[in-house]
Write a structure and sequence with these properties.
The complex is a heterodimer of chains A (310) and B (336).
Chain A: H1 6-36, H2 38-44, E1 54-55, E2 60-61, H3 64-95, H4 98-112, H5 116-143, H6 158-182, H7 186-194, H8 199-228, H9 231-236, H10 254-261, H11 268-299, H12 305-308
Helix pairs in contact in A: 1-11, 2-11, 3-6, 3-8, 3-10, 4-6, 5-6, 6-8, 7-8, 8-11, 10-11
Chain B: H1 2-21, E1 23-29, H2 34-47, E2 51-56, H3 60-68, E3 74-77, H4 83-88, E4 93-108, E5 117-118, H5 120-128, H6 137-140, E6 154-158, H7 163-175, H8 177-182, E7 195-197, H9 199-209, E8 213-218, H10 219-224, E9 231-233, E10 239-240, H11 244-248, E11 276-284, H12 290-303, H13 307-312, H14 321-331
Parallel strand pairs in B: 1-2, 1-3, 5-9, 6-7, 6-8
Antiparallel strand pairs in B: 3-11, 4-8, 4-11, 9-10
Classes of the chains: A mainly alpha (310), B alpha/beta (336).
Chain lengths: 310, 336
């Protein structure tokens, strides 16, 4: 055991290059973003993160409405997508006949490969009119006492963007969760049945408990996609720099403002402000990821089998 | 085998000769001028096979950046460079007007046809969020006989930075001191109200989907997509339909500065449509490369004369003759 072959050492070192190159890449992006946004970092300081004005003419920049928009759309998208995604994954892995499961899984993987601009176009021509004519009047009528469902109904806005995002990320959740559930050793399930567990109890207590780390991983992957998604959201969020509790309100996201304004940004301060938006997006992604990791750790204290043995 | 070899060699010689004689000219900037410039390149190369043009429609801001950095041979912009930007450039830059275009005010009001009369005051009021209902007395009084609904106005603007927005906000700044003071002009501004659509197609998408909406798009785009658009009151008080002709008129009788950095919005010409703009090519007065320099100047001279007929088919407004003469004199000062 103690003797190591030269080829082993060479192989190990070569492999080590790959993760290190990722580290260098991330650090490189971070420093480049900081360097290029120095003019606005100096001019606005920390205020850039909480000011609500975005005025390219007066060169007065604050990122809060965009941070708000990115967080709201991603969060609402997760609220919609996680139950659907995990539910579909359980059905496909546990209930559906193998042939049906296989066929639907192929369709799900196809969905994941559709370019987001297609979702955006579909959003403009199908989802937005539906939201304006049917869904939002309905929500306003029955849930209008909540601040989330008040205000003018344009069709475009946070809710439409969140639904598009949910549709975009659902395939990721289904695909990964299904694999995770299929990977649960059948001996655990069989033991549960042998002890008289119903199917629901076997799935809830054994399968989901065993696979919760993997499923949360799928959700984080989906969240990352939702935060960074640009084109589909830009096409239907309404692109209005406001902070409103209402999901009917048009809004704006970090990625959208970059896509919209980068090409025509002509002054140095303006360009620097947009690059700082990129930096904020980078930081928001990191913070959300860290929060999600902490969530996983808190859920998965102890080995996965620990809970099953109780 | 020998035959094949000699054939290959002959072909190689032919292509190398072709490459040796061809001058490649690179340009970048305005998306507004892109259809016109593609058409010009296409036609121009039929008679001038020794020049090859390449144009990247990356936006006016990008065009200014690239010509300042000299990564392209010419830029193109919908808004003139600021004094600040001019001093940052390593040499004297000439603005050469190439085409003119108008911005149409399109709306979606079921039952109301094209030609709704809109005054500057009403337009500014709508975009400032002060006029919010279609049956506002200020709109109704100008449009007797048209029944305007009691619905709220859905205001639509461009969300992406664009020359179209620049021309539109330039116009609002020139007719409304409230707009000039609180918003100003630019390719992107801090819009007081409204929904943002990405590109002309995004704006027209929102317009088509939302009854009671109003927005602005390039005239060519409005005509091609048969949008319903308004007749706007000009400086002389006449309500003018946006057309290629009424756009050209905006630069007639104008006091044109010698550096061509003019604005033709809110023209004093009584027949002019008031929201009109220009796209300029940006070139250095002192060209680095004599061959490229000559190729660019020759091309511009052709485009502002013979080339103007081609662009009229694409709903661009041709440059008035008086302006063409001034540009030709300016081009004679370019050194290469």
């Amino acid at each position: 055991m103690s003797r190591q072959d030269t080829s082993d050492i060479v192989f190990r070192r070569i492999l080590a290059i790959f993760p290190i190159s990722i580290l260098i890449l991330v650090a490189g992006i971070f420093f480049q973003l900081v360097f290029a946004s120095l003019p606005t970092l100096k001019k606005f300081g920390i205020g850039f993160f909480y000011h609500t004005t975005w005025d390219p003419v007066a060169e007065n920049f604050g990122a809060l409405p965009f941070i708000f928009g990115t967080c709201v759309t991603s969060l609402v998208a997760l609220l919609i997508a996680v139950p659907i995604g995990v539910g579909a994954a359980i059905f496909l892995a546990e209930y559906a006949p193998p042939k049906v499961s296989k066929a639907i899984s192929i369709l799900v993987d196809l969905l994941a490969a559709i370019p987001s601009v297609i979702y955006g176009l579909w959003g403009i021509f199908v989802l937005v009119p539906y939201m304006r004519n049917t869904a939002q009047p309905f929500l306003g009528k029955y849930l209008g006492f909540l601040p989330f469902f008040q205000g003018p109904n344009y069709g475009v806005g946070f809710l439409a963007a969140s639904i598009i995002l949910a549709i975009i990320i659902v395939p990721f959740i289904i695909s990964v969760s299904r694999e995770v559930i299929l990977a649960v050793p059948s001996v655990y399930k069989e033991s549960a049945y042998a002890l008289g567990a119903t199917r629901w109890e076997a799935i809830y207590d054994i399968v989901l408990s065993y696979g919760r780390v993997g499923i949360l991983g799928a959700v984080i992957l989906a969240l990352g996609r939702a935060i960074g998604e640009t084109m589909a959201v830009t096409m239907i969020i309404g692109n209005n720099v406001v902070i409103s509790p209402s999901l009917f309100s048009p809004g704006y996201t970090l990625a959208s403002v970059l896509a919209n304004e980068f090409a025509e940004a002509d002054t140095n301060v303006y360009l620097s402000a947009l690059i700082e938006i990129g930096l904020v997006l980078f930081l928001v992604s990191i913070i959300v990821n860290i929060l999600a990791r902490i969530l996983i750790w808190s859920v998965t204290k102890g080995p996965a089998e620990g809970r099953i043995s109780k | 085998m020998k035959k094949v070899l000699s054939l290959v060699m002959a072909m190689a010689m032919v292509t190398s000769v072709a490459f040796a004689d061809t001058t490649l000219v690179n340009g970048a900037g305005s998306t507004f001028i892109y259809p016109a410039i593609s058409k010009w390149f296409d036609e121009y190369s039929k008679t001038n096979s020794n020049v090859m043009f390449n144009y990247q429609a990356i936006g006016s801001g990008g065009g200014i950046k690239q010509i300042t950095a000299k990564t392209v041979d010419f830029g193109a912009t919908d808004g003139p460079m600021t004094m600040d930007q001019m001093t940052q450039a390593p040499g004297r830059i000439y603005h050469i007007p190439m085409v003119m275009g108008a911005v149409a005010i399109a709306y979606n009001l079921p039952g109301v046809d094209k030609g709704l009369k809109i005054t500057p005051e009403v337009l500014a009021g709508i975009y400032l969020g002060k006029i919010t209902q279609w049956n506002d007395p200020k709109i109704v009084s100008q449009n007797p006989g048209i029944s305007l609904p009691n619905t709220s106005i859905v205001v639509v603007h461009r969300s992406d930075g664009s020359g179209t927005s620049f021309i539109f906000t330039d116009y609002l700044s020139s007719i409304s001191s409230a707009w000039k003071g609180s918003v100003g002009k630019g390719t992107s501004v801090n819009w007081p109200v409204g929904l943002g659509g990405k590109g002309n197609e995004g704006v027209s998408g929102l317009l088509k989907q939302s009854p009671g909406s109003i927005g602005y798009v390039e005239l060519a785009y409005a005509i091609e997509n048969s949008l319903t658009y308004a007749n706007l009151q000009n400086k002389s008080g006449n309500f003018i339909e946006p057309t290629v002709d009424s756009t050209s008129k905006a630069a007639v009788g104008l006091n044109i500065p010698s550096d061509f950095r003019f604005s033709i919005v809110n023209s004093a010409n009584p027949e002019a449509y008031p929201i009109a703009g220009t796209t300029w090519l940006l070139i250095y007065k002192q060209m680095d490369d004599p061959i490229k320099g000559k190729a660019i100047v020759d091309f511009i001279k052709w485009a502002i004369t013979d080339g103007q007929k081609l662009t009229a088919d694409l709903d661009y407004a041709p440059l008035p003759d008086s302006l063409v003469e001034m540009i030709q004199k300016k081009l004679d000062q370019v050194k290469y």
